[in-house]
Every structure is written in C-alpha cells, then in structure tokens.
## 1
Amino acid sequence: MKGAIPSSDTAESVTAGHPDKLCDAISDSILDACLMVDPNARVAVETMVKGTEGEAIIVLAGEVSLNGEPPNYEQLARQTASSIGYTDSKIGMDATSQEHCQVRTHITTQSQFISQGVDGDLDTQGAGDQGVMFGYACSETEGTPELRGRFFPLSAALAQRLTRRLEVVHDEGIIPWVRPDGKSQVTVQLNESDRSIDRVSTVVIASQHSPDAGPNWPEPDDLTDEERRQYIESEITKHVIEHAIPPSLLGNPQIIVNGTGSFPDPGGPYADAGLTGRKIIVDTYGGGRHGGGAFSGKDPSKVDRSAAYYARWVAKHVVAAGLAEKCEIQVAYAIGISEPVGLRVSTFGTHSEALEGIPDSTISSLIMKHFDWRPAAMISDLELKRPIYRETSSGGHFGRVPTDDGLFPWERLDETRLESLRNHLRD
C-alpha cells in the first residue's frame, strides 16, 4: 500500500434493476396485492431470478394465507420486472414474453402452528417469529439542508440518493443508453480528532449501459473504447453524481464509474442471479449491527420487518428529541409471545449534557414507557396493514422522506412523543 488510509465511513446502495432488488420488488408487489385483498393477510414470499442466453426464469416460493381471492402471482411478477425495465433479453430478461421468460410458482398456505400463535388482539397477538432486530439513528445528515430531518448515516444517505437518481435517469430516459442494473458507493472521510464528517472522498458508480453508448445513440459512432469510457463517466457525473450529492459535500472527490472499464448489456439477471433478502445492509444503515432478518415479501406480523421499522422510528425520536447524537436499539422477540424478551439502547457516549452520567438503561426505560413494543401495537402505531411496501424495495427502507399518502410512516416524527422525551431532558 502507498500509505495509510484515512479514517472513513463507506456505504453502498443498488438500483431497482439490480437482480436482488428485482426479487425484493416482486416479493413486495405480491405482498401489497395480498394486503389489498385482505389487510390481515399472512405473506412470506421469496423470489429468485436468473437469465441465460435468450431465456430467463422467475421462481416464486413461500406461504400466503388470506381471506379472499389470491392475486395472480405470475402476472404480478411479470408486471413488476417489466416496469423496472426488463423487457428485452438483450438487456438481461424479457419478463413480458411467455416464450423467453418462465415463471414458476410454489406458494402454499401458512402453517397452522405458526398462525395459532400470531393471530390475536393487542394483548394476545404474538411475534411471528423469534429473532433480534436493530434500529438506528444519528445526527450526521442534520448539517446539510438537503438532508435535514433524516437523522441517518451520511454515507448511506448519499449512496441511496445516487441509486434513486440513477433510477430516475433510466426511467425518464435522461440518459437513454442507461440500463436498469446499477450500484453506488460513497466514502466519507472523517476528521481524525473527533471522527466528525470532513468531506466526501470517493464516489463509485456502476451503471449497466448499451454496448454502443455514445452521443449519437442509438445511431453508431466512431468512439474508441477509451473515448466511450470517458463519455459515459462524464454523463454519469453530470446527470447522476452532481445532481444527487449536495454541492456543499461534493468538493473534489475521486470518482470511479464502471471501474472495470465498461458494464455493457446483457446485465441484470443474466449477469448475476437474484434472490429476495440478499441486500439487508443496503436496506438498512449501510453497516453496523443487524439481526439478519430480511424485510421484503413479509407481512407486518413478521417482527423481522415491523419491529425493525419500529426500532428505527423510536431511535429517530431519541436523536430528534436531543437525548443523544447516536442511538442504536436492539429488540428481541420469541415466536407467539407479545412482549419483547429483551431491549437495549446504546448511545455510544453521545448523550446530551443534560443526561451526563445517566446510563443508557435510563433511555431504555424511557422508550419502554412511551412506546408500545407489542406486535399489534407497533402495527397500529405505524399503520402497517396497508399496501405500502413495493416502494421500499429499492433506495433504502430508512432515511427516506415520509409522504402524504402514507409511505415510510416509520420516518414520520410524532410531536407528542417528541415532547414527552424532551420533557425528560427538562426534568
């Protein structure tokens, strides 16, 4: 190595067209469709995709129990994949073609031995499985106006913005030769003294593209390989990087676009098989502790999903209320039991001066008082029995902006609870 690597923090993200995210989108589209039929539906659906020479396969497997007519799973899978852009085998998959894309469905009903412990009211509905979930929030984004209110790790917030912008560039044809599959990575350099944010030091983009991408596309041009590489890098820099990263943070980072030189068709499922739930760190905070449970394709009775959302919601309240600059919550459940079997808060020594000398266990007690961690209560607080999950399947589940039509409710702050937490500081 040429020298010591500066202290830094790095996170990555992937687009909706990444094979794993394609699977997450299909699984969550099926979940949403089931919840539209029955808000109390029990859903756990996994997806696998793989493209071969001119062919592709989508495999759907899992369990669904609902009161009503099940949706057409194959049609949902095809519609979701084609909406993301997979309509041509030359790109990686043609989900619209019965001839060139098979869909195999292996979906049964939920085991009665699970449902007997999960169904119930506020007091009796137990957790859908055992497991450990984590929620996290921090103040890193709060110094940047464009990111304020997210209370999220900066590197992860920027990586997410890049892939969401890359999706827009593809969907709206802003760069017409960009394909659905893509990835981003952002490295933020830290000050050695206090590990505060110094600058964005490296931005990495991988973007699938047409083999003959160029200024005359779809007409041919006479670019050399190096000229084409430089052209692709300049367009991605202009329309993605400079658009997604706030100018106050961009500075003069190292920019790497398609580090191997090119990323031409076919990509997506042809280049790499996809599976539901294989991007759990991308889905959450870009690094750190994780209980291991994936989100997509699971209804909110599964605490892998609902408790992770709730823990994020609560951690965000702790930081937004000024109790600490960082907050990580670990919560654990046993299948069929409504109350969590364990809950722990860590503020990593960043709690406010008003709480100086107060152990993190005091904050644990505080959030147990003001937030109800029983599965039915979490589902009710966040209104999770709605078809709001397809939108979460790419671009990150956390650090997003809650919408007026109810998306990302775990990102919306409750002023009453915030004031209750602030009152503890005043007391």
## 2
Amino acid sequence: MQQKFRLQDYIGEFVYGGMDGSVTTFAVVAGSVGADMDLSVIIILGFANLIADGFSMSVGSYLSKKSESDNYEKHRRVEEWEVDNIPELEREEIRQIYLAKGFKGELLEEIVTVITSDKQRWVDTMMKDELEMVRESKSPLAMAAVTYVSFIVIGLIPLGSYVLKDVFAIPQNRLFMLSCLFTTLAFVVIGYLKTYVTQTRAWKGIAETVFLGVTAAALSYMVGSWLEKLF
C-alpha cells in the first residue's frame, strides 16, 4: 500500500529535478549569450528547454518507477501462488534463507513457523530475502509531478533577469551577470538539499553542484561563441 503524499518524502525528486532544470537552462542561456543571440531568442530557447526537457525527464521518471512497481507486483503474485500451491517448497526456502543467516536448531524452526504462519509476512520475506525486491512506497505519478514542478520552478531562475528585464528596467549588459548570480545561488540551495538525500557533507554537495553547473554553462558559452564566429 502506498503512503499518503508527504512532500518531505519527495525531496530527492525535487533536488534532482531542480538540479537538472537549473543546469540545463543555464547552459542554454550561456550558449545563447556566447552566440550573441537576441533576447527574444534566449527566452524562447530557455522556455522550450523548460517545457520539453522537463516533460521528458518527468515522463522518464514515471515510466521507470511504474515499470519497477509493475515488476514487483508480478513477482509478488508468483510468490503468492507458490505459497498457496507449493507451501512445503516455499517453507524450505525460508528455512534455507535463515540457515544462511546463521540460525540453527530449534530457533531456526521457530523462526520458520512464525514467518509461515502469516501469508503476507511469508510473501514479504520471500520478496525481500529471496528476490531482494522491496515495494516502492511512493507514487510514480507523484514522483514524476514533483520532478516536473521542480524542473520548471528552479529552471526558471536562469531566465529570471531576462523575463523581468522590462519590469525592473534592468540594463541589457547586466542581464547575464544577474543570471549567473541568481543561478549560482540556486545551485547552492540545490546542493545543500542534495546533502539531505545523499547524507554527505554540506560543503561537498554545494561544491559539486556549483562545479557541474558552472562547467556546463562555460562549455555552452564557449561552443556558442565559437559557432557564432564560425558562421
């Protein structure tokens, strides 16, 4: 049974969706600036990346998690059938599993009796210990939705200065600088949140995210600049 939706359970999807959105959109902006494209082209390319890449990423996430869930349920139905129709063989498999864990004698037989006295517990044990499969508690649809929303929301940050140029009367020669500043801050936040998922040091998560984002943007800028001069 899937748990009730709780946002804190989907921090991983939010982090990776936001990281991909900010990195790819910033790369598009940097490449467009390097190619000396018009502001309208930068905005169009940026939003096209947000909508298309974000949708592609979320669909990929959904299909991947849905296939994993379907595969789990298929194998679970097989185990349920085997428990119902060949219980002695399945009981022996439980015995062998716990014998390999170091249990022997009366204790081993007691464990086998307890586990096989409840069908759900029996099947759960077979799924986990024999097939090494665990049911995903999170909804594939919710995972895809969080990924897409994060991709869009965080991915908008590199475009912020360009979209709000007229609202705040931002000089054109400062647009890219502001985009770099705001995107770097976004990388810092995403990098920090990533450490919550990966359980690593905060400075390491932030440094990795900023490095990846800056590297992608630098490469895009150089390629855009080179192609603009070439053509």
## 3
Amino acid sequence: MLPQLALTGLLVALIPLTLVWVSNDSNKYRKLIWITLFLTFDLVMFGAFTRLTDSGLGCPDWPGCYGHANPLLAHASISAAQEAMPTGPVTQGKAWIEMIHRYLAMAVGVLIIAQVVIAWWRWIKSQRLERKFQPWWPTALLLLVCLQGAFGAWTVTLKLQPVIVTTHLLLGLSLLAMLAWVAARQTDHTPVALSVRMLKVPALLGLSLLVVQIALGGWVSTNYAALACTDFPLCHGTLVPNMDFENGFSLWRHLGKTADGNYLPFPALTAIHWVHRSFAFIVATYLLVLAALARRDNGLRQTAGWILIVICLQLATGLSTIYFNWPLAIAVVHNGGAALMLLLLVMLNYKLWHAPLASAFPLPAGGLYRVPIS
C-alpha cells in the first residue's frame, strides 16, 4: 500500500513539476516555490471542504483507506460501512474526498522535497554565496510538512478530536505562511518609504490578531458551532447570551463531549461561536485601519488594497453563513478568505521589514541632480 500511495503522490506532483520544467521563466526555483504556494493554498481550501462535508473520517484509517491505496480497492469495505450506517461518516463520496485531500498533501510534500534538494545543491555549488538558495527555509518547511502529516494521522486515529483538528488546521496555515515568506524572498519588491516603516510593529500585531481569530474560527468549525447563533447582531435575541466558557474552551476532550465525558451543552457551543464573532469585529477594525495607513505608500498600495477587499469579503461571507444557514460553498469561501488574508499580511510584513527603501530624493531622468547656484 505505501509504495502505491507514494507513487500516487509523485504522479500528482509531476504535473506542477512539469509546468516548472517547461516554463520560460529563467528562475525555475522561484517558479517552483510559487506553484507550491498555490497548491498549498488549494490544499487548505480542499481541507476546509473535507472538514465541512464531514469527510474527515471518510477513510477511518491512515494513510490508506481500509488498508488500500485508494477507495476503488476498498470499495467492498466502504460499502459495508455505508450500509451499516447510511448517515455515518463513511460513504463512497466522503472516502474519495478524504483520499484526494491526502493525495494533494503528498504532492505538496514532494514539491517541498524538490525545493530542499535544489536549495542544498545550489547552495553548496555556489560555495554558500547565493543568498536566495539558502536551504534553511526549505528544510524548515520539510520538517513542518512531516509534523503536519503526523497531525493528519492523529486527526483520523483520534476521531476528529477538536484540539487535534484545530492544530492540524493551524499547522497547514503555518506552512502556507512560511511558503509565502519564502516566495517573497525570491521576488523583487517595489521600494517603500522610510516613513511607513513605523508600521512594522503594528503589522506584526495585526498578523498575530489574525492568527488568534483563525484559531477561534477553527475551533468553531471543529466543534460544529457555526450555527450556535442563528441571528445577528444579537445571539438568541440578546447581546450577551447564556454561555458556558469552561466547557466550550476546554481543549482536551472528545468531539461533542465535555472533559468529563458528558455531552457538550449547547451554551458551550454558543460561547465558541460568540467569541469568534465578537473578536472578528475587533480584528477587522484593526486591519482596516492598518491597511488604510499602508495604502498611502506606493510599494504597499496593492497589498493593502487587497487586504481591504478580503476583509469586506470575510465579513460578508461570515454573516452569510448565519443568514443562509451555513451553505457549503460560502463556508468554504470563508475559510479560503482567512487563508488569503494570512498570505496578504505575511506579504505586508515582509515588505515592511525587507523591501528596499525608496529614496527620499529620487534622481531625475538624467541621473544627476541640478543644484541651483545662488
């Protein structure tokens, strides 16, 4: 089974690797990093789709499906499980969703291994002179992929335990953020003015606030608390509803259960939902102000503009999940918007810390200053 799974991941990865190889881009290493970033974003989106369609246990073992490399070979076992529990977590469709997610993850792993090999080879060949091929970042990415794979296995073997699933989500987004940073290192950036460097610390704080909000959103999703409040701006007809924070934010417990093994009370789900909803407006307000300030600089204008757009998208999709009773497409877009916002804030932070400084006195077209003589 394991050789078949490895071959499947390699075959999926061969498509982007071929695109990199035949491209006209002179810097194929940079092309590989950007394509890996794109596929990792897709993987995060498909992971959200897997979670939201309740397909996380579509194959209740790991890394294969009932001991096989694909659901076709496991058809009899899946059919038997589906017949025994028609509304259960194992169906033919959910099995394919889960395994496609795993195939994509393996392909991303192959692409990162390719980055590591190329980076070390070019770094040694250049006698450690080519800064863009420093292998430390790709190596760290590979270690993170291995850790992410372990949490992927535990997600299945521990039966979707919320803290494990949420950590799996956060590690996936950490991988996305690190790839965005590595991609930014390979890219030329428009110079930024010295005056906007004062936004470096506020931008880091904005990124930290977003990570907390994403963690809260993951906790909502993994506890199936998205519809704990079905009205807005109130919740159950009041501004501060009855909530159970102790059980809602108890980390080490099984899905739908308290730490004592009892069924999770509904006020606990309300607390999870309410905290995520309330904190969203704090984060959105902060990021709106940050983006508005950053947008004044030419080097940051495009990134800041996209941040403003994605904030509005997130607020719209978040409210739509409540008003339209959590439609799948909007919920997936909401998850994707969070990943996109993370990418944009990583790029903003990189530019603030590492983009070249714009000259306060730019040279005229001739390259010489005309100094008036009094």
